[in-house]
Amino acid sequence: MERYARQVPLLGLDGQARLGRSSIAVIGLGGLGSIASMYLAGAGVGRLVLVDFDSVSVSDLHRQLLYTSSDLGKPKADAAAKRLREINPEIKIEAVNRAIMDQDDAEEVVREADILVLAVDNWRTRQLINASAVHHGKPISHGAINGWVGMATTVIPGITPCIRELSGLGVSDEGIACLTGDCSSVIGPVAGVVASIQSSEAIRIAAGLRPALLNKLLVVDLNNGIVDYVELQRDPKCPVCGVERA
């Protein structure tokens, strides 16, 4: 337990043991997923499933600090798995080199884990994973970034709104770009902040603690030095998670 000595007082021995038995899938290994996976590996998650179809490019390196120049051209899932095994050789790490193209793909990924860290940059993939996670009752730690703005929330099926409901929020144009994946630029530290929040929420869930972002969308604006949140409420008519859906 020496490796985890500084966090055991916060999680408890039972919480650390639960974390060591948990399985977490990180879907997307870019600016968010690459950083979140480092914290999850360091914390002692029992099994990490790393899902990404892309390869490391030079434009990734300013924010995806898991990778180095020697990883250029390599599949992100493989490069991430190699580095994370160096960070913590005590945990099980699986690399999945694939894209989420349809609902069957999403189902395969969601069934593999207890908790999902959703760190992709497109709305379609988010919705595919969201629908499958709601169906199977799997929690999601969701993050999105664009420019100087980042957002994070935690989805617990049956308790919180699902990701489908986020698109109707009255947030800024830059915030909507975060959520929909219309992201053309990003500053590295924004990814680091949001990824840290995502990994913290996933660790809390795995350790049996209450997530901090239940029914909240946290908004971080590093251009203006603002951290705020939007209160969320479930829509009973949501076609994915609503109790009144057909």
From TrEMBL:
The UniProt record lists the THIF-type NAD/FAD binding fold domain at 4-240
What Gene Ontology cellular-component terms does the record carry?
Answer: cytoplasm
Q: Which GO terms describe its molecular function?
A: nucleotidyltransferase activity; thiosulfate-cyanide sulfurtransferase activity; ubiquitin-like modifier activating enzyme activity
Question: Do you know which PANTHER family this protein is assigned to?
Answer: ADENYLYLTRANSFERASE AND SULFURTRANSFERASE MOCS3 (PTHR10953:SF102), UBIQUITIN-ACTIVATING ENZYME E1 (PTHR10953)
Family named by the database record:
Belongs to the HesA/MoeB/ThiF family.
The protein here is known as: Thiazole biosynthesis protein ThiF
